[in-house]
Amino acid sequence: MNSIHFIINPQAKNGYSMKVWKKVQKQLTLEQIPFHAVFTEYRGHAAEIVGALLNGTDAEDLVMIVTIGGDGTLHEVINGAANARNAMIGMIPAGSGNDFRRGYGIPKNPLAALQFISERAKTRPFLADIGEIKNEQGDVTYFINNMGVGFDALITKVANSSRLKRFLNQFHLGNLVYAYFVMKKIFSFQCSDVNIVIDGKKLHYKKAWFVTVSNQPYYGGGMKISPQADVGDGLLNVTIVQNLSRLKFFLVFITVFWGGHTKFKEVKELVGKQLTVQSRSPFYAHADGEYIGESPMQITVHHQAMPLLTKKVD
Ligand SMILES: Nc1ncnc2c1ncn2[C@@H]1O[C@H](COP(=O)(O)OP(=O)(O)OP(=O)(O)O)[C@@H](O)[C@H]1O
Fold first, then answer.
1. SMART domains given for it (predicted)?
2. Same domain flag for 76 and 200
3. Pocket test for ligand 1, best of 43, 181, 218 (most atoms within 8 A of CB)
4. How far is the CA of 136 from the centre of ligand 1 (A)?
5. Which residues pair with 91 in a beta bridge?
6. Cβ distance 305 to 115 under 8 Å?
């Protein structure tokens, strides 16, 4: 087997990732699987590591890259590899949200995940769709799970930079921080009218709370925001929540955990290959749970563009 390049975020879930890495490292040695390991040192480092790694290899050589951390580190790895065709990306989940694990069928247990990856490496990789986001300045960010503008991006931004998340992560309760900030921000959030142009069709939504664009069903640490989303169908699934009171928004938000929100008339769903999202007042935007700036954004799907060491989940 080719050497596996591990990229480990030692800070993910307050250092839980290092415990996972130690178990994985022991198993690699036991099974005599060749590997390299690099530890990220700061935000954005994983994308730089991947960029440098792929630059130093011939385009015909397949490079296996496995990240140990959360969806944020994986997001960076995907962005580092998005323009290369010779990277195969895998993940051993060790973060607090782990929506990639849910959406792409990766085992929870680190050693089971390693075995799963080793097996995938022997067959052809699964080619997943990825989403491309372009802002007004033309800067490009890719996403593998989902992107969103509005209330969910605001929660992402405040939760990710909060000390409370780090504190709660010590007790494996990091996800509670999102619920806390939802409760806190729901009273002050300002909705905005939103214009969406999807595959040439113009649509207008009054008083939108958020717009989420999904490549797979899960976001926010297990919420089923887009039950129909499929990572291999060449389509993006758009969810718009609009025109409801703060109280009703809260009730609808709870139902997202099991995908029940889609039954509400204030929740609209669209499907398409390319869209622009523009809000009357600027909305924060996130990609895979990482803050990326403000709307407007143009989003395009790239079908079967990312070789993954995963399987497609039905
Ligand atoms: N050494 C580091 N020090 C600080 N931050 C880092 C480091 N390496 C990576 N990061 C950043 O930490 C953030 C969170 O990483 P990651 O998602 O892997 O872990 P997490 O604890 O599960 O968080 P999340 O709940 O967002 O998934 C990412 O934005 C990543 O860029």
1. DAGKc
2. no
3. 43
4. 26
5. 67
6. no
Give the pLDDT confidence of 194-244 residue by residue, as tens digits.
999 999 999 999 999 999 999 999 988 888 999 999 999 999 999 999 999
pLDDT tier, 313 (very low <50, low <70, confident <90, very high otherwise):
low
CA of 69 to the centre of ligand 1 (A): 7
Q: What are 296's two structure tokens?
A: 């407007």
Report which of 14, 38, 35 is spatially closest to residue 25, judged by C-alpha positions.
Answer: 35
Same domain, 251 and 157: yes
Q: Distance from the CA of 68 to the center of ligand 1, in angstroms?
A: 10
* Ligand 1 nearest atom to the CA of residue 69, by list position: 18
Distance 232 CA to ligand 1 centre (A): 27
Decide if 312 is inside a domain. no
Domain that holds residue 244: 132-307
Whole-number Å distance between alpha carbons of 48 and 182: 33
**With the C-alpha atoms ordered 101, 90, 23, 38, is the resulting torsion angle positive or negative?**
negative
- Average model confidence (pLDDT) for the chain? 92
Helix (H) or strand (E) holding 253: helix 246-255
